[in-house]
Amino acid sequence: ATKPDEHGIARFAMACPALPTCGLALAEAERVAPALVAPVAEYLREIGMDGERLSIRMTGCPNGCARPYMGDIGIVGRSKELYALFLGGDWANTRLNELYADAVPAQDLLPTLQPLLRLWRDGRKSRETFGDFCHRVGLAALRERTQAMQADISHQEK
């Protein structure tokens, strides 16, 4: 038998049916969510965060059928292959997350999340969830820190 934790973050992921099923959908969700969740799980393993709870919720439109506004990470379809990224919800679903980045191309979702997950690993309090970390640090500070990380990487590549 499979243990519940063997399913990793996929256990806590949720996506609405979106395209082509829903007439309100602006972007994919259910069909592309696994292609994001699996690499995020792999990245967490790479940085030593395997086994951490992380909720990713994805919808194909702003109506929020998969409750993207409450997860650690909420991804909301804005138009074909463009998504709004929300961060900072809590596990009790008592706090809404906030808009971190708007109009993120689908292929940039993982690269956008990776530095944030690294910041969580390096700056969290004991057993602090990703959503609680983002809420405590604040999205403006997270944007500044990730931009600084990108600048360092660009400088090192020269």
Could you walk me through the main structural features you see in this protein, from its secondary elements to its overall organization?
The chain is α/β, with parallel strands linked by helices and 158 residues long. Helix content is 35%, strand content 17%. The protein is built from four helices and five strands. It has helices at residues 33-46, 109-123, 130-137, 139-157, and strands at residues 14-15, 56-59, 73-79, 82-87, 98-105. The chain has a five-stranded mixed beta sheet. Helix 1 links the parallel strand 1 and strand 2 (56-59). Helix 1 runs parallel beside helix 2 (109-123). The longest helix is centred in the last third of the chain and has 19 residues, at 139-157. The termini are far apart. Residues 1-5 have low confidence and may be disordered.
Q: Cα-atom Rg, whole angstroms?
A: 15 Å
Q: Outline the low-pLDDT stretches.
A: 1-5
- How helical, in percent, are the residues? 25-40%
Supply the number of helical segments.
4
Instruction: Output the helix-strand order.
Output: EHEEEEHHH
Main sheet strand line-up? 1-2-3-4-5
By DSSP, the count of extended strands is: 5
**How would you describe the shape?**
globular
Major beta sheet summary: 5 strands, mixed
Which structural class matches the secondary elements? alpha/beta
The pLDDT mean sits at 91
Straight-line distance between termini? 50 Å
Strand content: 15-25%
